[in-house]
Amino acid sequence: MSILRIQNLTKEYATGFWGRRHRALSGLNLEVEEGEIFGFLGPNGAGKTTTIKILLRIIFPTSGTAWLLDKELGEAPEVHKIGYMPENPYFYRFLNGMEFLLFYARLAGMSREDARKKAARLLDIVGLKQSAKVRISDYSKGMVTRVGLAQALITEPSLLLLDEPMSGLDPIGRMEMRDLIMELKEQKKTIFFCSHILADVEMLCDRIAILNRGVLVKQGTVQEILAAGKSSYKISLDGVTAQTVERFSQFVAKYDEFGGIVHLTTENQEQAQKAAEFALSQGARVLEMRPEHGTLEDYFVREVGNRE
Amino acid sequence: MNKIFAIALNTYKEAVRNKVFYLILLFALILLGVSLILASLALGQDDRIIKHIGLMAINIFGLMLSMFVGVNVVYEELDKRTIYTIIASGVTRTQFILGKFLGLFITVTTNIVIMGGLLCLLLWIWKDANPSPSLIMAIFLMLFEMMIVTALVVLFSSFSTPVLSAVLTFMCWIIGRMSEDLWEWSIRLIDQGAKGVAYLLRGLYFFLPNLAIYNVQNQVVHHEDIGSLGYAIFIYPLAGIVYTALLLWIATVSFSGRDFK
Questions:
Q1: What is the DSSP string of A5-37?
Q2: Distance of residue A216 Cα from the nearest chain B Cα, in angstroms
Q3: I want to staple A110 with a disulfide (CB 3.0 to 4.6 A). Which of A115, B55, B172, B235 is the partner?
C-alpha cells in the first residue's frame, strides 16, 4: 500500500529582478510503499528538498499533487503521523534539548506528562540524555542533528521525511544514525530520506529514486538499478605463464597480477567465457569467475554526470 | 488555539532570554532612578517629575522592546528556517502569525506591568501616596498603544528585513502620535492651496492609527481631566483591538500563500 504518492508534481520559482521562471521540479511521479526505506538521491539543486517542502506544505506546488497517508495536499494533513527533520537543522538556540522537544510535543497537542515521558525517552535514544538541560546553542552540529531526529519522532509518526540525516555526523554518529533508521524500519515505520552519502543509501534503502535538475532519472530497488548499470566480469587465474599473459589482451579490458594470481576483467560474459577457455587450453587454473556490478556511486556519477 | 499558545509561549521565552530585554529593562530602571534624583531637586513638583519621567520611560522602552525584539521574531524564523518544522507540525500560517503576535505582546505587557508597578511603588515610597486612578489609566491605555505597535512590527517583519521593519514601525508610531496634528496641518495646507500634500496627510490620518488617544501622560502629570471615562475604558481599547485585528489580518493574508524558501 502506498503511504506516499506524488503525481506530476511541478514547482517553478520566480528568480531575479525580472522574475524569470526557474523550474525546480518537473512532473515528478513517485510512490513510496508502507514500511520501506526510500532513498531520494540527486546532486545539489536537483529538487529533493523542494519535493519534501511541497509535501509538508512549506511551499506550494505550481501544478500536480501528492497524497501523504491518503490525504491530498490541501486537505488537513495527519501531521502527528508525519515526522520531519530538515537539512542542516538550526533550532531555537535559547531552548535546551528537553524544552525543545516539549515545544513540539505541545504543538502536537500532547499532554504535559505524556510529552515529558516521550521527550526523555527520545533524548535517551538519540544519546542526548546527559545534555537534556543544555541549551541548543551549546550543542555540537552532530548533537543538533540528533535532537532534530528526536523532534521528528516526538509524535511517534508512521512516516518520516528526513532531509540529509547524516549531514554533520562523524563516522560513529553516522553508524548510530544508520542503526536508528534500521530500528525504525523494524518498527514498521516508512522512511523517505534524501542523502548525498551514497554508501549509506546503498546500505539502508529498499528502493531509491534519482533526481537531476528536477527530473526523475531512475527509480527502483538498489539491486535493479545496479544490475541495469554497466557491469563487468572478473576472472582469477593461477598458473599463467608470462608468455600467455600477453595474449589475453585480445579478450580482456584489463589485467593485473598479484602474487602469481592473474586477475582479468572483461566487458561481458561472452568475452569472459572465451578468456577462461583460452586460459584452460594454456594449462592455467580458473580460480574464480564472477560478474561484478558497479557501486551506486559509480552509477550515480555516470547517470547524473552524463546529463550535466 | 493550543498551537497559538505554544508558539506564543515560545516567543515569550525567546524574548525574555534575549539580552536586549534585560538591557532595555535596565535602562528603564535607571531612568526611573534618575527621576528620583530630579524629583529631589524640584521643590513641590517632585511627584510630577516622577510621573512624567516614569510614564515616558515605560512608553519609550515599551516601544523599543516591541521594535528591537519584535522585528526579529518572524524574520529569524524565516531566515534560520526554524519555520519549516513549525509548519511541518501542522501549524497554519495564520496560527503562526497570531502566536508570534501574542508572545510578543505578552513580553511587552510584562515589561509595562513590571515598570508600571515599580513606578507606583516609587510614588508610594516617595510621597506615601497610593497610585492615582489616572496613573493606572495611563498605563492601561499604554498597553493598547503597544498592542497596535506590536501588530505593526509583526506585519512589517512578515515581509521585510529587521531594519526596514523597525524604521517603518517607528515612522507609523511617530505619525500615529501626531495624528491630530495631521488633520490641523491638512486644513492649513488646503487654505494655502497645497491640496495634494493636504490630501496625502488626510490619507495618513485615516489610514494610520491615532496613537495620541492612548497618550494621557500630560493630563496625569498636570492632574488634568483625562476625558470621558467611557472612552478611556471601552472605546479607545476597542478601537485598538479592532485596528490590531485588521493589521494581523493583513499579515496573515500576506503570509498565507507564501513559499518559505
A1: EEEEEEEEEEETTTTEEEEEEEEEEEEEETT-E
A2: 22
A3: A115
* A188 class by beta-carbon count within 10 Å (0-12 exposed, 13-18 middle, 19+ buried): exposed
CATH 3.30.70.980 range(s) for chain A read 231-307
Domain A2-227, CATH: 3.40.50.300
Sign of CA dihedral A135, A137, A139, A144: positive
Q: Mention the CATH class of domain A231-307.
A: alpha beta
The span from the CA of A271 to the CA of B154, in Å, is 72
Does any domain span residue B261?
Answer: no
- Using the Cβ of A59 and the Cβ atoms of chain B, whether some distance falls under 8 Å is answered with yes
Residues 6+ apart with CB under 8 A from A58: B83, B84, B87, B88, B259, B260
Range of the domain at B112: 2-256
pLDDT tens profile B85-95:
999 888 999 99
Span B136-172, pLDDT tens digits: 888 898 999 999 999 999 999 888 888 999 999 999 9
**Residues facing residue A211 across a β-bridge:** A216
CA-to-CA distance for A90 and A67, rounded, in angstroms?
Answer: 28
DSSP assignment of chain B equals -HHHHHHHHHHHHHHHTSHHHHHHHHHHHHHHHHHHHHHHHSTTTHHHHHHHHHHHHHHHHHHHHHHHTHHHHHHHHHHTTTHHHHHHTT--HHHHHHHHHHHHHHHHHHHHHHHHHHHHHHHHHHH--PPPHHHHHHHHHHHHHHHHHHHHHHHHHTTS-HHHHHHHHHHHHHHHHTHHHHHHHHHHHHHTT-HHHHHHHHHHHHHS--GGGG--HHHHHTT-----HHIIIIIHHHHHHHHHHHHHHHHHHHHHT----
Per the structure block, which three cell numbers stand in for A288?
574464480
What residues in chain B have their Cβ under 8 A from chain A's Cβ atoms? 2-3, 6-7, 9-10, 13-14, 17-18, 80-91, 257, 259-261
CB atoms A58 and B89 under 8 Å: no
**pLDDT tens digits along B192-214:** 877 788 888 888 888 888 888 88
CA distance A76 to A119: 26
B68 in a domain, yes or no?
yes
Distance from CA of B10 to the nearest CA of A (A): 7
Q: Which neighbouring-strand residues pair with A219?
A: A209
Spell out which residues of chain A touch residue B82, defining contact as CB-CB under 8 Å: 90-92
Overall domain count for chain B: 1
